[in-house]
Design a protein that fits this description.
Low-confidence stretches: none
Shape: globular
Strand order of the largest sheet: 5-6-4-1-7-8-9-10
Structural class: alpha/beta
Bound molecules: 6-O-phosphono-beta-D-fructofuranose
Mean pLDDT: 95
Radius of gyration: 22 Å
Number of strands: 16
Length: 454
């Protein structure tokens, strides 16, 4: 098996003595897939993202953390055009419905250069897969960064089987209008050249086939194969000394108060602003919660090469400061905002959350929703957006539903969660946990290997 993804499972840094040190990378894709691939013969091919990665790339396939990783040293300007301009400014926005019509990107001539860079990056991945894959191997292609890999690999290696998995939702046909028509067709044809395209939910698979139909592209077989959580891996993390000491610190800091928790990348689709606005409204309308509840927001910046992310991060920090100034007291800061990306602390907070807020405007899955439910030992209540892919698995299992655009509804859901009787919390937590852990990582892998025609 060969796995292709933009972000690799290990990021390398150079120590003061010049040696390379590998550290498990962040993000849903890596935490979902790394445990599956660890200890197997699979080669994981990814882009080199840092100087350390570029040095590691020169060594060919490197082994780290039980994984065989091959990093591709792509020319930085080409990589940045493909990643920032095409993947994250254009495709991400289209798949998550983040454009408002009057501001759709005005694609100048620069688009052609960026799109060519996207092609070049896909070509580099295709070449590496063609070289690395043993005969008759399966190539698992991950995400919207690599939509053009399949036709190139198929032409060179008809023996290989290709399955593309989208970690994101898929655009509605009208959202793909943000791309020039020829690019949209190339994108869809690139995906259609896989033996199968898999998604977290039936809903995203339907949106993809609707796009194919609207652009006259014959859709490949599709399947809904939501990424599971690896319970053993989570439990290992939770029982580590770092998590235990982070947990003890959280307990000391928030002793006697309830905790509403969110753990997210600072990302437009995650809808942090409306989440904090809902907490603000809760404190305004229900004074009984003042000084009784802390919103513990453990978030981390990403994609800072894209202007919208930088602006969004500043807007989020400003709103948090405003809310804390409005309601804070000498003994109580309403929102504990930490953008330090501390994994053990996030795990410890998910274990102890009284309420976990997951309110994205659109999200492929939201692994945090499943991880949070699996880790939680406080009968925490999950407040979940219907627009997260995880809603398909957890919506009927006891999550409290929110429309992510409805701030009033979100404030009411937070109140309902905080006031829920203990017996109901326990019952919902049990059914949620069963639903979140019903499928194993092995199930997901078998589904990928079996997807498409025999
Ligand atoms: O959810 C889509 C996704 O690309 C994941 O695959 C990844 O874990 C996350 O977004 C982070 O994205 P990036 O690699 O751009 O930081």
């Amino acid at each position: 098996m060969v796995l292709l993804s933009n972000r690799g499972p290990i990021s390398f840094t150079e120590g003061t003595d010049g040696t390379l040190e590998g550290r498990r990378g962040a993000g849903g894709l890596v935490s979902g897939l790394a445990p599956l691939v660890a200890g197997t013969d699979a080669v994981w091919i990814a882009a080199a993202l840092s100087d350390g990665d570029r040095r590691a790339a020169a060594g060919g396939v490197v082994e780290a953390d039980d994984l065989k990783v091959q990093l591709l040293d792509i020319e930085p300007a080409t990589f940045s055009l493909a990643y920032d301009d095409v993947c994250n400014s254009l495709l991400w926005f289209a798949h998550h419905g983040l454009f408002d019509a009057p501001r759709r990107p005005a694609l100048g001539r620069g688009f052609d250069t960026a799109w060519q860079a996207y092609r070049d990056v896909n070509r580099a991945f295709a070449r590496a897969a063609v070289t690395a894959a043993p005969e008759d191997a399966v190539v698992l292609v991950q995400d919207y960064h690599l939509c053009l890999v399949a036709p190139l690999v198929r032409a060179a290696r008809p023996d290989l089987r290709l399955v593309h998995f989208s970690h994101t939702p898929f655009a509605l046909p009208e959202w793909l209008l943000a791309l020039p028509d020829a690019a949209a067709v190339e994108l869809l044809e690139g995906l259609a050249a896989n033996h199968a395209c898999t998604f977290h939910t039936e809903r995203w698979a339907r949106d993809f086939t609707a796009c194919c139909a609207s652009y006259g592209v014959e859709a490949p077989p599709t399947a809904a194969t939501p990424l599971p959580v690896d319970v053993a891996d989570l439990e290992r993390a939770a029982s580590s000394p770092a998590c235990e000491s982070a947990g003890a610190e959280l307990e000391r800091t928030f002793a006697g108060r309830r905790m509403v928790v969110r753990v997210d990348r600072i990302e437009l689709s995650k809808n942090l602003l409306r989440g904090f606005a809902a907490f603000d409204l809760l404190l305004a309308e229900r004074p009984e919660w003042r000084e009784q509840v802390t919103f513990v927001a453990l978030v981390y910046p990403s994609r800072e090469g894209v202007d919208e992310y930088v602006e969004y991060r500043a807007d989020v920090a400003a709103l948090v400061a405003e809310i804390n100034a409005r309601w804070g007291t000498p003994d109580w800061t309403p929102i504990h905002y930490d953008d330090g990306d501390d994994f053990p602390r996030s795990v410890a907070a998910l274990q102890r959350a009284d309420v976990l807020l997951v309110n994205p405007v659109r999200d492929g899955l939201n692994l945090v929703a499943k991880e949070g439910v699996a880790l939680n030992t406080a009968d925490g209540v999950l407040v979940l957006s219907t627009e997260a892919g995880a809603w398909a698995e957890l919506g009927d299992a006891g999550a409290l539903r929110v429309n992510p655009f409805d701030v009033v509804g979100t404030a009411d859901a937070l109140h309902a969660a905080l006031s829920m009787p203990a017996a109901e919390r326990a019952a919902r937590a049990a059914t949620l946990r069963a639903a979140a852990t019903a499928r194993t990582p092995q199930d997901w892998l078998e589904e990928q290997l079996a997807a498409g025609p025999d």
